[in-house]
Amino acid sequence: MTVQVESYEHFSRLLHGKVIEQRIPVTATIEVSHRCSLNCSHCYNNLPMNDEAARRSELSYEELCRIMDEMADAGVLWLLFSGGEIFARSDFLDIYTYAKKKGFLLTLFTNGTLITERVADYLVRWRPFAIEITLYGRTKGTYETLTRVPGSWEKCMRGIELLRERKLPLKLKTVAVSVNRHELFAMQDLAAELGVEFRFDSMINPRTDCSASPLHVRLTPAEIVELDVLDGRRASEWKEFAERTIRSADQEHHPDQVYHCSGGVNSFSIDPTGKMTICVLSHFDEFDLRSGSLREGWDHFLRGVRGKPATRPTKCTDCRIKAVCGMCPANGELENGDPEEPVDFLCQTAHLRAAVFGFPVAAHGDCEYCEGGVHHPAIAETAASLKDRKPVTSALPATAPKSVGCETGCFGCGNTATTV
Fold first, then answer.
1. What does the alpha-carbon distance between residue 281 and residue 263 come to, in Å, rounded to a whole number?
2. Structural domains of the chain, count
3. Residue 6 included in any domain
4. Domain range holding 231?
5. Is 360 within the bounds of a domain?
6. In this structure, is residue 121 part of a structural domain?
7. CA torsion 321→326→328→331, rounded to 10°?
8. Is the torsion defined by CA of 21, 23, 25, 27 positive or negative?
9. 420 residues of the chain, pLDDT tens digit each
10. What CATH number does the domain containing 33 carry?
11. From CA 112, how far away is CA 159, in angstroms rounded?
12. What is the 3-state secondary structure (H, E, C) of 269-324?
């Protein structure tokens, strides 16, 4: 049977829909290093560039090649290289080239500060599917307040220019935090001037070691939803996303399972030391690829993780707007030490979005933010004030990309622009 493919997005969604039925791992993330050239206050996993213990613990080039051989055999098509900073490894281009020769569609997450003319020229010869650079501020002062590395602003801008000059598939993104929120739309305008795609994410997690230090710069729920309102494009995308995910939740409700994402169904992650997990944020359950094969990890270990039964009902169990808040077991682990415990911050943000953008919230247990709940009046009051805000005027590209997307890029929740 011949299937008419209308666009790459159509192809991607079609393929993901097919492989879910067969449990084929078509998407994967490899964090090649947690070492980084920056010291961002919001980051969930960065370590110093000169951390020798971290460097020695990283998978070797040979180990990574063996794992990528097994990934190709398992059916992986989309592969994301992330960090830390990918270019913290002196052999990254060798790793990257091997992956290219295996036929993966490769996306690179980088801060851009270590991109040189040699690196940019190499990427021209071995062109990636996408390169995403995180821009932490529109001005040097804001950027380096967040990165805490003098001179990093100029290096990042130079990296961006080197990729643009060579017409490589560059996208810019940012994480909206208290330090840079006042420059968010200036960054968006810069991306428009450069003719590259742009998106932002406001949802900050604790570190993967469960340290709460990144939360010191996390925006409040009201500040996060205000940014959604001010970006008219993003507001319309949240409405469309909510409608699609609420409909999907009604059709595919699995209240007896802990996991409802596609992690362990068609995606997985590997950390720098070879630990295979259901996603980049979740480290409660790890399979060591240094002592076992990827096939064993996927067919047996992650199948078991993905099939974990819920131990109790919570207000998240029957919630149809869970995708709008981003609540998942990984967030429960990081914030509460319990994959099933609702994250209050995410719940509050989701209900405020629903009130502002007008999508329905069906009853889902004892929720303090729903109508009749103790915090519902505050949600209604804040929503009323935000509805009066007008979208800012921004020089968006004519073919603006989806701006609703996750910074981690783990693929598991389906809320990412990288896969599609």
1. 11
2. 1
3. no
4. 24-309
5. no
6. yes
7. -140
8. positive
9. 555 556 667 667 666 666 667 889 999 999 999 999 999 989 988 899 999 999 999 999 999 999 999 999 999 999 999 999 999 999 999 999 999 999 999 999 999 999 999 999 999 999 999 999 999 999 999 999 999 999 999 999 999 999 999 999 999 999 999 999 999 999 999 999 999 999 999 988 898 887 888 999 999 999 999 999 998 888 888 888 877 777 665 555 556 888 888 899 999 999 999 999 999 999 999 999 999 999 999 999 999 999 999 999 999 988 888 878 888 899 999 999 999 999 999 999 999 999 999 888 888 889 999 999 999 999 999 999 998 888 875 544 433 445 455 555 555 554 443 333
10. 3.20.20.70
11. 5
12. EECCCCEEECCCCCCCCCEECCCCCHHHHHHHHHHHHHCCECCCCCCCCCCCCHHH
Query: pTM for the whole thing?
Result: 0.90
Instruction: Note whether residue 328 is domain-resident.
Output: no
Query: Could you give the 3-state DSSP secondary structure of residue 225?
Result: helix
Judge whether 186 and 229 are in contact, CB under 8 Å: no
